[in-house]
């Protein structure tokens, strides 16, 4: 019991908990402020949606405490079990989507997306949100095990290629299943945080620059094709037209305001209407879809103005910084790669959500972590937050042990020096 209490006593020195509480508080207020807008699309939406979000977060906090008590090492031992457990529902969704075979509890959205299970008495659950946990645990283990086997000075092209093959073998199957739902947003999140973990793994820079340059060329070429030769993508590459329509709305939101660009154009108008201090709680001055989920940042801008958006962005930045600080404390250990992966998830999702809301990036349906409404997202990120806290505790212990070691070494060296070189008068 004393060991558990000591763990939580260490956490009192980490401001990340305060940052998270403030971010969640902003989310609760913003969700409640978005209810009048959300009810336009969802008339049966209950007025206490903010309370439901608080319940999800509270359940997640309880699970996060369990994660801290269990510790990262024991969870690492279960990594493949967690990975395999969430692969099963993903396979079920894929079978239902592609082969139209009835799978119990599968829920199909009105736009044809198949990403959820409807659990009686509980609600919907999105397996892809929890699959991210399994992937980050498995990839971190692959990198750590590889680095222990091949220290930095023994790295070659062959060993680096071996690492990449092992990582891709673990990442591509779930990423493919999620992309086919279709859910390009979470697929991009997975690919981004895995790329960041590979970047931090110690792989040689020339490979990173080569692959990064290749990806940049492909993305640029794709965007050019969408704008100039969309027929090539739809007819030759067989890409669904509705996916490309998001780019049309991104390129010219106000010119396509009656169709593809409506959501972005209305979101921009909402943010612009907020000015410095906003229009007030539940102002509902401008209507736009998905106000309580994808476009929650537009609600903050409309109702609480520039001040509200800046506070949100700053708190998210401070929260991310503390995760990187935890990764630094655990440098060279498994926990470090876990924290880097979690940072990658959050950072990409924050940039993509805020960027698509203000028109810098195309709309992908990515939510703002801890702020947007969503049971699966809130619960999964609270579990990941528990991993960060557990890693912070381990990092403090590692740092303490290193300091003790250096202090003992310095003491022994100093004592030996005095004994050999300093003579005292009798």
UniProtKB/TrEMBL annotation:
Gene Ontology MF terms in the entry: lipid-linked peptidoglycan transporter activity
GO biological process, one term: regulation of cell shape
Chief location bin: membrane
InterPro entries in alphabetical order: Cell_cycle_FtsW-rel_CS (IPR018365), FtsW/RodA (IPR001182)
Keywords, ordered alphabetically: Cell shape, Membrane, Transmembrane, Transmembrane helix
Subcellular location: Membrane
GO cellular component annotations of the record: cell division site; plasma membrane
Pfam families: FTSW_RODA_SPOVE
Membrane-topology annotation of the record: Multi-pass membrane protein
Record-annotated membrane-spanning stretches: 12-35, 55-73, 80-96, 185-203, 208-229, 295-321, 333-351, 371-393
PANTHER family: CELL CYCLE PROTEIN, PEPTIDOGLYCAN GLYCOSYLTRANSFERASE MRDB
Protein name from the UniProt record: FtsW/RodA/SpoVE family cell cycle protein
Organism of this sequence: Turicibacter bilis
């Amino acid at each position: 019991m004393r060991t558990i209490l000591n763990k939580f006593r260490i956490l009192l020195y980490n401001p990340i908990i305060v940052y998270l509480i403030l971010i969640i508080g902003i989310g609760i207020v913003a969700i409640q402020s978005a209810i009048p807008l959300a009810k336009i699309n969802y008339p049966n939406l209950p007025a206490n949606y903010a309370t439901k979000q608080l319940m999800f977060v509270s359940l997640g906090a309880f699970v996060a405490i369990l994660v801290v008590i269990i510790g990262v090492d024991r969870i690492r031992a279960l990594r493949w079990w967690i990975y395999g457990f969430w692969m099963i529902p993903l396979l079920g969704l894929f079978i239902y989507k592609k082969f139209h075979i009835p799978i119990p509890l599968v829920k199909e959205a009105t736009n044809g997306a198949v990403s959820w299970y409807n659990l009686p008495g509980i609600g919907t659950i999105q397996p892809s949100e929890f699959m991210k946990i399994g992937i980050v645990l498995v990839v971190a283990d692959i990198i750590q095990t590889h680095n222990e086997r091949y220290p930095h000075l023994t790295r070659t092209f062959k060993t680096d290629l071996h690492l990449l093959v092992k990582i891709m073998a673990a990442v591509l199957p779930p990423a493919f299943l999620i992309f086919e739902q279709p859910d390009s947003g979470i697929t991009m999140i997975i690919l981004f945080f895995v790329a960041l973990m590979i970047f931090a793994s110690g792989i040689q820079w020339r490979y990173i620059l080569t692959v990064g340059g290749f990806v940049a060329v492909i993305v640029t070429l794709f965007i050019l094709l969408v704008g100039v030769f969309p027929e090539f993508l739809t007819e030759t590459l067989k890409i669904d037209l509705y996916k490309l329509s998001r780019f049309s709305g991104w390129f010219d939101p106000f010119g396509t305001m009656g169709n593809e660009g409506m959501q972005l154009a209305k979101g921009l108008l909402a943010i612009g209407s907020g000015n410095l201090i906003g229009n007030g709680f539940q102002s509902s001055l401008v209507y736009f879809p998905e106000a309580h989920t994808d476009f929650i940042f537009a609600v903050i801008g409309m109702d609480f103005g520039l001040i509200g958006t800046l506070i949100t962005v700053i708190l998210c930045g401070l929260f991310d910084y503390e995760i990187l600080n935890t990764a630094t404390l655990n440098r060279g250990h498994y926990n470090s790669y876990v924290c880097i992966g979690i940072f990658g998830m959050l950072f990409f999702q924050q940039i993509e959500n805020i960027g698509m809301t203000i028109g810098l990036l195309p709309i992908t349906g990515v939510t703002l972590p801890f702020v947007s409404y969503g049971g699966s997202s809130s619960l999964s990120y609270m579990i990941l937050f528990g991993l960060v806290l557990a890693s912070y505790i381990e990092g403090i212990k590692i740092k303490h042990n290193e300091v003790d070691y250096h202090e003992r070494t310095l003491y022994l060296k100093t004592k030996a020096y005095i004994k050999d070189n300093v003579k005292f008068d009798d």
